Amino acid sequence: MAAPTDADLLALATLLARRLIASDRTLVTAESCTGGWIAKICTDLPGSSRWYLGGIVSYADAAKSDVLGVPASLLQRHGAVSEPVVRAMAQGALQRLGGESSVAVSGIAGPDGGTPEKPVGTVWFAWGRRLAGGGCDVTAACEVLPGDRESVRRAAVGRALAGVLDL
């Protein structure tokens, strides 16, 4: 599976923009291994301020905790690359930045950092949706993406955007 091209990512973002505008919804992001790449692709589109409110790049555990409100106990118990942490990141982005939809990404892009339990390429995704009553519905998924650091990060951006489209 080849990583998406820049044109592929822009096409995904364009489709996402159309859907969010049509449904009068906005998006916020919480990124770790993608380092703001999702936010960059979104804001590459003219008029993105109509549907993209902003994002938080929380690369360090302290930023996940301090800025996004991820409980330190989750980080200690499960590690940054885990379902509970990425779910908390998606919720934290909605709480801190507003909006109706969120996407969060945390992973191991490499070339170092992998373990037998979490090899290089392991990426957790979470997509949040604000509910009418004020709560938040979050779905999560894990994928092991192939390739070098650039390929893993690029594929993670594509998967994150595609997941928002599925909401």
Could you please describe the fold and organization of this structure?
- With 167 residues, this protein is α/β, with parallel strands linked by helices.
- It has one domain (6-166): CinA-like (Maf protein), CATH 3.90.950.
- 42% of the residues lie in helices and 22% in strands.
- It has helices at 6-22, 37-43, 61-66, 72-78, 83-97, 149-166, and strands spanning 27-31, 52-57, 101-107, 122-130, 136-144.
- A five-stranded mixed β-sheet has the order 2-1-3-4-5, sandwiched between helices.
- Helix 1 (6-22) runs parallel beside helix 6.
- The longest helix has 18 residues, at 149-166.
- It is globular.
- The model has no long low-confidence stretch (mean pLDDT 97).
Highest CATH level, the class: Alpha Beta
Q: What is the domain tally? A: 1
Order of helices and strands: HEHEHHHEEEH
CATH superfamily: CinA-like
Question: Any idea what the radius of gyration is?
Answer: 15 Å
Shape, principal axes of CA atoms: globular
Structural class: alpha/beta
What share of the residues does DSSP label as strand, in percent? Answer: 15-25%
Number of strands: 5
Helix content: 40-55%
- In terms of per-residue confidence, which ranges show pLDDT below 50 for 5 or more consecutive residues? none
Q: Would you tell me the overall average pLDDT?
A: 97
* Number of helices in the DSSP assignment: 6
Largest sheet: 5 strands, mixed
Offer a few descriptive terms.
6 helices; 5 strands; 42% helix; alpha/beta; 167 residues
